[in-house]
Design a protein that fits this description.
Helix 8 packs antiparallel against helix 10 and helix 10 packs across helix 12. The protein is mostly helical and about 375 residues long. The longest helix has about 35 residues. Helices cover about 55% and strands about 0% of the residues. The protein is built from 12 helices and no strands. It folds into 2 domains: about 60 residues; about 210 residues, no CATH class.
Length: about 375
């Protein structure tokens, strides 16, 4: 297996580089500001309406020039070559409409558009790498040390028994007799949460760009909150003595904890479950953004993820419940922030915001609606 050595430092440096590249690309794609035209050129005879072309009193129809019966249209009064439009009166190159006058400013070429797209992709990749760096950093640091991790895990185990929640040990024993299924759940836990989350972000960014900012903010708020909580270490069930649970990944040589593919994931960050939180976020995004009638099947993804983290003895039931509550808090914070922004805009503008005006219909509902 290739050792990628993806430490939090490398991820942070790469994120900073991509962020700088995004800023530089957006600056390069910005169209140049129009230069003011010279004063003499703006009032040149070719562009301005000439006085001799305007209707002068001498050219106006006088009573003497009015058509009388004796003054019928004779050949002399017919349009002669001198009265016909001369080359001077014809549209000269100066008088002809320039491309800027006909079609306005020229549309930007494909190169600036490509730079803008590349800048957006670099920015979103930098955000994901920054989150990954914080995750790795949280795994290497803790506020109180690892000594109390087992005691906190024991407290969670007893709290679940007090409220009569299903035993994780009994659930795992129902699967241990099926080695292929357990190995599949090990792989599911080790890698699928990254693949599905990144695929969902790419899908929303490419086809539902209006909803992407809300999805990104929700992801950042939830992940940052989970990492802050994980500074307080909590051991997973597989490390808790006396609960009868088996480390299925270690049994089949599939453990991601150690030096596998360069990841040094923290084993004492069980509370809350980032796997369950990300899976629930993906399901909510698919349900609210997609218009397919099959979108409701996405709700099975967090349920399957919760089953996987329990069968592999990496999380308690309460770890998943805590992740769902934290995600709900992140969505509530976004709603409160939008309400505050609307109130501020309404006060500064002296009237209701766009969302509060009668007849306003959003293009699509927000992700956390």
């Amino acid at each position: 297996m290739i050792d990628l050595e993806l430490s939090w430092r490398a991820a942070a440096v790469t994120a900073a580089f991509l962020a700088a590249a995004s800023v530089a690309a957006r600056h390069a794609a910005r169209p140049p500001e129009p230069q003011p035209a010279p004063a003499g050129r703006a009032t040149s005879p070719g562009q301005a309406t000439r006085a001799d072309q305007a209707a002068s009193p001498g050219q106006a129809a006088s009573p003497g020039q009015a058509a009388s019966p004796e003054q019928g249209a004779s050949p002399d009064q017919a349009a002669s070559p001198d009265q016909a439009a001369s080359p001077d009166q014809a549209a000269s190159p100066d008088q002809a409409a320039s491309p800027d006058q006909v079609s306005g400013p020229r549309p930007p070429g494909s190169w600036p558009r490509r730079l803008t797209v590349a800048a957006g992709i670099a920015q979103e990749t930098a955000i994901l790498l920054a989150l990954f760096a914080l995750w790795q950093l949280a795994g290497s640091l803790s506020l109180v040390g690892p000594d109390g991790a087992l005691a906190r895990a024991q407290w969670i185990w007893h709290a679940e028994r007090v409220v009569h929640m299903p035993s994780e040990t009994e659930i795992q024993r129902a699967f241990l007799g099926h080695p292929l299924l357990v190995q599949g759940l090990n792989l599911y836990y080790a890698s699928l949460h990254f693949v599905v989350l990144i695929g969902c972000l790419i899908w929303v960014y490419a086809w539902h760009r209006r909803q992407y900012p809300q999805v990104r903010i929700t992801l950042v708020l939830f992940t940052a909150g989970a990492l802050l909580i994980q500074f307080l270490p909590v051991a997973p069930p597989r490390m808790l003595p006396g609960d009868g649970m088996v480390d299925t990944a270690a049994r089949y040589g599939q453990s991601v904890y150690g030096s596998v593919a360069g990841f040094n994931a923290d084993q004492l960050s069980a509370m809350p479950s980032v796997h369950v939180g990300w899976a629930l976020l993906v399901a909510l995004v698919v349900v609210q953004v997609s218009t397919s009638r099959w979108r409701w099947l996405a709700l099975g993804y967090p349920v399957l993820t919760l089953l996987a983290v329990v069968v592999t003895a990496n999380h308690f039931w309460l770890d998943g419940i805590a992740a769902a509550l934290l995600l709900g808090l992140a969505l509530a914070m976004q709603r409160a922030g939008r309400a505050v922004r609307r109130a501020i805009r309404s006060r500064w503008r002296g009237g209701p915001g766009r969302e509060d005006r009668p007849g306003y219909v959003p293009a699509r509902p927000s992700v956390d609606a």
